[in-house]
Amino acid sequence: MGRYPDDWDTRRKRVYRRDEYSCNNCAREGGPHGDHELHAHHIVPIASGGNHNETNLVTVCKACHRSIHNRNYKAPTHAGLPEPGSSLMENIYVRRSVEISGLVVAVIVWAYLASLVV
């Protein structure tokens, strides 16, 4: 099996489709909707006890994925998310909260995260 499960290609493509081929940070589009390279990012890293389940994966573009793993690299901005100063992972968490739990919960989470930045 190696580092990734045998069906990794199928899993990541399902994640891309679930996320509408759009980066969860900057909204750049890939696949059939755009020309940006998309990656399936582990929200909880495998090294920290995460898994390869689709619930632990989120679609990000190549540039945003690079910025998650390299603090010296700046990610593209997403106009629809909180003001500058909030981290990339906070933005991803807020956006996933909308999908998983509904808008009200996402607004509460956003308000909490924004209070940490101030």
Short description:
The protein is mainly alpha-helical. The protein has helices at 8-18, 62-69, 88-101, 103-117, and strands spanning 38-42, 57-61. The relative contact order is 0.14.
* Helix share bin: 40-55%
Spatial sequence of strands, sheet with the most strands: 1-2
Oligomer: single chain
Mean pLDDT: 74
Number of helices: 4
SS elements, strand count: 2
Q: Can you write the helix and strand succession as a string? A: HEEHHH
Whole-number tally of structural domains: 1
CATH architecture: Orthogonal Bundle
Rg to the nearest angstrom? 14 Å
Overall geometry: globular
Major sheet details: 2 strands, antiparallel
Cα-to-Cα separation, first versus last residue: 45 Å
Low-confidence stretches: 79-85, 97-112, 114-118
Secondary-structure-based class equals: mainly alpha
What CATH first level would be assigned? Answer: Mainly Alpha
CATH topology (level 3) name: DNA Binding (I), subunit A
Beta-strand fraction estimate: 5-15%
Written overview of the protein:
This protein is 41% helix and 8% strand. It is mainly alpha-helical. The chain has one domain (8-117): Orthogonal Bundle (DNA Binding (I), subunit A). The chain has a two-stranded antiparallel sheet with strand order 1-2. Helix 3 (88-101) runs antiparallel to helix 4. The longest helix is centred in the last third of the chain and has 15 residues, at 103-117. It is globular.
